[in-house]
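=== How it folds ===
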Amino acid sequence: MLLDKPGNGPVLAYCWRMQTVRLRHGAVNRIPGTGAVPASCCLPPSCCRGFTLLEVLAALAIFALASSVLLVTDGSVLKQVSRAQAKLQAAWVADSTLNAYYASANLPAAGTYARQVTQGNASWFVRSKIAPTSQPRLNRVELLVFAGTERPAAEDVPAFRLTAFIRRPGS
């Protein structure tokens, strides 16, 4: 290749479009069939140019669009992780409440009970519905766990719902 031959001198510029090399001593040599990427701006200036402002702005717009899509996606993933953590904590609260019913000697009478529970760094509102079943010593327990400390409205959707059957002690 012409650039590697000794005696040609250092290359001042390489023109990609014209496939020419301007050497330090002023000679301009044509390099046929080279696929090298130009290392610097061309001489003369008319043969090669840099990016135009419009091309740079278009590239920045594409980059900004791609970045915003990534940020939106990342935000939705964080929301999903947060919801999954809240649902898991609500399941723990329901499981703890159900285990308290299993461990107690006297199951509360049929009815609806509500209480506030703090577990971890969150407060929960637990609504328990205890109802008899067709079996004489079996109760149906439905636990609804809501996020927050305020009493939820009847139409509010619980963070977690658990239904279990507990045998009444005695007879």
Remarks:
- Residues 1-6, 35-43 have pLDDT under 50 and may be disordered.
- The first strand starts at residue 11 and ends at 15.
- The chain has two domains: 1-64, 84-167.
- Residues 53-103 form the longest helix (51 residues).
